[in-house]
Amino acid sequence: MREKDDGPETAPDRTDQTLDHDPNDPNDPNHRRGPRDAGGPTGTDRGTDIAADAWSSKRDKDAPRPPRRGANAPALGLRGTLRFLWRQLTSMQTALILLMLLAIAAVPGSLYPQRSVNPSLTQEFLDENGRWGEILDTLGFFDVFSSPWFSAIYLLLFISLIGCIVPRVGVHLRQLRAQPPRTPSRLTRFTGYTRLELPGADADSLLEAAHRSLRRSRYRTVVREEKRSRSVSAERGLLRESGNLLFHIALVGVLICVAGGQLTSYRGQITVVEGEGFSNSLTQYDSFESGAWFDSSAMPPFQFTLEDFRAEYVLEGADESRVGQPLSFEADIAVTTPGEEHEKRTLQVNKPLHVDGSSMYLLGNGYAPEVTVTDPEGTVVAEGPVITVPMGDTGYTSQLVIKAPDAQPKQTAVVGFFLPTGQIDEQGPHSIYPDLMNPMLALTVYHGDLGLDAGIPQNAYEVDVSSLDQVTGEDGSPMLIKLTPGQRFELPDGSEITFDGVRRYAAFDVAHDPFERWVLVSALTAAGGLILSLFVPRRRLWVRVARTDGTGGARGTDGTVVLEVAGLARSDDPALADDVSALAQKLAAEQDGPRPSEKTGPEAATYPPPEGSAQ
To answer: Over pLDDT 70: what percentage of the chain?
Structure first.
């Protein structure tokens, strides 16, 4: 009669029970007695079948299918539904899908101009594309990285990664503290199984040599006492999972730092003429954008002066298609920071200047002709360098606008072109080369109300001439004024325009992101973790040593020593079988006595293995 078992609450693992017992031992409690002629399987056959079933993922065709749930199966309920959604969101598959969606969502930010980077180019795209541009603007394609749909993917990815990482960190920490797993009783089913018989060898010294060798190879090891043998369990490669977790944690760090940078950073554009300077304050910027948590009092206090700007172009005599193309742009500046002396630096394209946590990039350049305008009363109403806007041709033909709201008796506007190498023909005023070969101004003058007193902001580089009166000549035709440096022109009403000279200007982009450095650190950490997770193999090795009595059993103490070595890899590890064999041969070579007989693979499986503890 069987007694009731008051053992552990959890149900025993059927596979582990099979692997623990010896089917040839009649004293084993798991040994099933019964006549062979009854047609039932023997204990060995049954154990083999159960083990095969446990390692097979295929469904038996003849096996009964589990009953299907009826139509009245209980609903998940609110709590069950929320748990199901949370598990789906925090699965690794969902995280990978969200990561792919985030990469796809960032593509429009590279294909279309962004308002935060170049507002003028964005407006130009909208003007050129009409209805299509309005649709893209409504969908947020010109503010991709601050759009609701991009932010939603971003937040979901962040939550998914956190949900994946937190439980895995706990599991990994327990693995680091735990000992290597117990030696399985049947090593024959593992990779590279090798069985050596060593007559006259000392079992204890052999096991100690195996322990030392594995420790030198950086395995975590533990020596275990078994019923009829001793074994060493070894494991290494937990650094693979550490690298995997490090990659995901660093990826979360990248997301946090990017979000923090968007909230606390600022970016502004400035235009500085040669000989003039800039001080890092809000009032000095031509355009400025900042994050929601930006603090203007924390702006780095620095200033600089643009001392010289140099540009080189392809000269005549070269390939005609390349004449006028830029070769280099360089800006010499003198930087001053609190408590430090003046420092002279040279900025180039893609070679920014870093000052007190801010990065300053050379964004563009152009010409600033010095023009003086006086009204009929002789009062200077406009004076100094005028920043012109290049029209986009290779000759650097640039548009010029001068507004003189203080002119008397009527307000005055001067509109025209600056031509570095000027030429006026049937094509109109234009420049044929971008450098100062023949600088020229081609101007027209308007009188009337400029609309500056209406309180409506206006573009400093544009003027609406539709409501203004153009100055004409004696014959009533529009007057085109051509000036070269040093020339002066007097209008019919007594006003004068003087072309005093030409200076160059440079446009700079100043950006400050306190999290920029940490984004780089997190990205490099993620790359390091990915390398560890890809190239560090995780494996387990077992070495068992037992004595035989010469009759196939393992009960004697004076017989041959049997050495068994096997391994198991977590992923594809083609070198594992060779390493297992090499370890067995190395241990055998260290023992005195005749050459051992080696059996590996299926042949070795014919020997009954000594009994041990199951994994």
So the answer is: 81
